[in-house]
Each structure stands twice: as C-alpha cells, then as structure tokens.
Amino acid sequence: MSSIKLILRKNKIDKAGEAPLYLRIIKDRKTKFISLSLKLNPNEWDEDRQKVKKNHSNSTRLNAYISQKVADAKGEIADLERRNQSISARKLKEAIKGKPLTNFFEYSHNLCEKRKDTFAYSTYKNYKTYLKKFEKYIGHRDIMFEDITVTTLKDFAHHSSSVLGNNNTTINYSFQIMKLMFREAQKEDLIPLDLFPFSKFTVKKGKSTRQYLSEEQLEAFINLEVSSKYKAHIIKDMFIFSVFAGGLRFGDMIELKWKNYDKKNSKITKVIRKTGRQHSVRIGQKAIEILEKYEQKDQGKEDIIFPFANLDEAFFTDKEYRNLVTSRAIALNNMYLKKMGVKLELPFNLSFHLSRHTFATRALNNGMRIEHVSKLMDHSDIGITQVYAKIISSELDNAVDKYIN
C-alpha cells in the first residue's frame, strides 16, 4: 500500500519566510516528494488538518486547489495499483507529475554518443567505462536522476574503495563524470536545478604527486647505453626530445612529421591531439641534435620523424583505430622505459609521461615563469601547472630544513 500526505518543507524557507508545499508519497518505505508550486508562511499552514489557515487572504481558493491535487493524486495511485501490484514510489511520482522522469544511464550513454566526435577518443572510452562501473554497482539500468541520492554516492564510494580498491582520485573521477551528466541534464531542463546530491557529499582529494627525473637522473638517462636493436633507442630519443621540447605527449610524438618542424626558427608547430589546439614551442639544443639524427636526404614533409609505430592512413582518419594503435605503442614504450629505469635504479617506474613532468620541473627550477610553462605545456588552466610549482616549493623547504636546522 501507499500513503500520501501534504508536507510544508520548513527546512527550505526562503528569504521571504515562506516554505514550499509538497505532496509526500510513501510506497514500500520509499519516499518521493512532488512540488505543488505553492509557498506558505509556516504560521499559515495547519499541519493537523492539512489545510491553509484562514489567516491567509486566499485560503479558500488555495484549499480547493490543494484538495483537488490530493484527490487527483489518490485517484492516480489507485488506478496504478490496480493495474500493477509492484508499482514503485518513483513510478507513482512520475504518473502524478505527468512528466516522465529521466533515466540516468540512458541519458548518459546517449550524451556520450552525441559528443563522441567532440571528445578525445580516450575521454569517450573513459566516460563509457566509468558509467559501466556505476551501472554494475547499481545492478540494473532502471535508475532515474532523482534516485541518485547522497546515500547512493556514499555507498558507491565505499564500494569503490573497499571492494574495488580504488583510491580517492579514481572515485572522484567517477563522480566528475556523473556530475557532468547532472549538469547537462539540468541545462536541457530535464531535472530541477536543486537536484545535485554532490553538493552534500564529497570525497577527499588524494594527495597529488608528480614523479620526474632530477638533473642527475636525467643526465644518467641521457648517457645510458641501450641496444640499437628493436626500438629501445628510438624510445630513449623520444623521451629526451620531449624533455627539451615543451613536454610533448606521447600521442603527439609518434605522429610528429617533418612538416611540423620549422628548422630555421627551431620550432615545433602541431595541433595537439588532446586539446585540438594548434600549439607552437621553441625546442632546445638537445632536441635539435636528436632531430638531426633522424634527418634523411630524401625525406618528405609528410614523413614521420620518429619511426616508432607504423602509421597508415587509417590512423589519421579513424579515432578508434588511432586509439588502439596509440595504446599498444604506449604499452611497448613504457615496457622499455621501465627496464631502463631499473638499470638506472630509479625509485619509481619510468614511463613516458615523466618526460612531461621533467620538463615542467626543470623549467620552473631554471626560473621560467609559471604562466610561460603553462603555455608551453598547453594546459587549459594554470592551476594544473601549479602542481609542479608546489613540488619545487616543497623541495626548497626540505633543502632549507636539511641544511639550516
């Protein structure tokens, strides 16, 4: 059985001292509220009699309106329960409001497909993967935006941590994707603006760390002897090039062409895959020397500089295929780099992305302004670059503590 009652939400009193009036539906111990688009001063509402008091100037008209809404709701509930014994509180609310609720998973997956061509393919895949993880936790797809409460978020966060072993950074990324879906649904007027459980529950951000090569470690890496067989020497050259060329990402490095290199001005100019922005960076002497190693007399402007991966036409036209090729290349690249890191006895696993971190910390250590570092790394927000500045500041504090105390 279900019950229905009028509730004045006194916890939502506005600046005028008025609170909204709702229909409260309880079905199988699940509660749903339906707004009547009516606000009253608490002293104008008779909770016991479920009526507007006579001290309100329009009490007669409002009571007639409210009585009709209650009668309509009760009639709708009776009809639904006769037709379906397993009807839920959510379905009752949907029927009474007359406006269908929006399914979270259907909306989210449809949005991903609509935005597929505007997202980086890796972003699209991540969104789908993390949505699937949440769906697996819920156990079904029949969940509306209104069903995702603070309790849902807390339980999902606990499950992600204790069962899946996710750290706070991973959990926050899941929430970030879910937040995006809520905001987009609000923009389309599919859910109310005040429906946002994330404002009442947050997961503490994990401590941000960035591994990088110190000057001594970088020098040792540059001097490291590697086999000329296979592609170890190319991987090493690409890593060093990135360090001295603005921290170019691996995905941009493997498809770098000679047309991207302005030899006269020692500049690399390229549309960055991740951001879609054209980016230009002046490269250092060490990077220039590496390019000279790969120059050929008969090379064309469309030729790839670093012959690491076999890139055919499909690579440049098919996002899904490009992502597959790049992922495999990254795996091979990092396998070789990890072995090099072991030879150097580094206290962390060496991966290509550390070339980017190394560029940033070296630039800041050498006095480059943070906004210039941010520009060279093509960061969308200088706040991202400030992580590296904090590393430099922390190292300075440790140095002071070591030598002055």
Keywords:
3-stranded antiparallel sheet, 8 strands, mainly alpha, 405 residues
Notes on the structure:
By secondary structure, this protein is mainly alpha-helical. The chain contains 15 helices and eight strands. A three-stranded antiparallel sheet has the order 1-2-3, covered by helices on one side. β4 and β5 form a beta hairpin. The chain is elongated, with a radius of gyration of 30 Å.
Please summarize what this structure is:
With 405 residues, this protein is mainly alpha-helical. It has 15 helices and 8 strands.
SS field, number of helical segments:
15
Unreliable spans are 395-405
* Order of secondary-structure elements: EEEEEHHHHHHHHHEEEHHHHHH
Radius of gyration: 30 Å
Protein topology:
Elements: E1 2-8, E2 19-27, E3 30-40, E4 45-46, E5 51-52, H1 59-83, H2 89-97, H3 104-114, H4 121-138, H5 150-162, H6 168-187, H7 215-222, H8 232-243, H9 250-253, E6 261-262, E7 267-271, E8 278-282, H10 285-294, H11 313-317, H12 319-343, H13 353-365, H14 370-376, H15 382-404
Antiparallel strand pairs: 1-2, 2-3, 4-5, 6-7, 7-8
